[in-house]
Amino acid sequence: MMPATRIKEHMEVIGADGVHVGTVDHVDGARIKLTKKDSGEGSHRGHHHYISTALVAEIEGNKVRLSANADVAVMFEEESSGK
């Protein structure tokens, strides 16, 4: 697992397939908090989502690459309550 200390604000989070998942707001414990602008549609729109740092495969420049493709990674997103 990559050290979360290497993950910085405004880094792009991408899936293993290179598809945009979100933008880092900040790291909150063992989770990456994504910016609201990447919050999705419908009832998910307008609030922060989180991705576990356990999904981070590597950090490439200003990008955080996940171990799962983007369409799978978003299924692991959590809301602020951890659900």
Structure overview:
With 83 residues, the protein is mainly beta. It has one domain. Helix content is 5%, strand content 37%. The protein has one helix at 70-73; strands at 12-14, 20-28, 31-34, 49-52, 56-60, 63-66, 78-79. The chain has a 7-stranded mixed β-sheet with strand order 5-6-1-2-3-4-7. Strand 2 and strand 3 (31-34) form a beta hairpin. The model has no long low-confidence stretch (mean pLDDT 84).
- The percent range for strand residues is 35-45%
Tell me the number of helical segments per DSSP (H or I, 4 or more residues long).
Answer: 1
How many structural units, i.e. domains?
Answer: 1
The whole-number mean of residue pLDDT values reads: 84
The proportion of residues forming helix, as a percent range, comes to under 10%
**What is the gyration radius calculated from CA atoms?**
11 Å
Shape designation: globular
With strands numbered from the N-terminus, the spatial order across the biggest sheet is: 5-6-1-2-3-4-7
What structural category arises from helix and sheet content? mainly beta
Low-confidence stretches at least 5 residues in length (pLDDT < 50)? none
Distance between the termini: 22 Å
DSSP strand count: 7
The major beta sheet can be summarized as:
7 strands, mixed
Series of secondary-structure elements, N-terminal to C-terminal:
EEEEEEHE
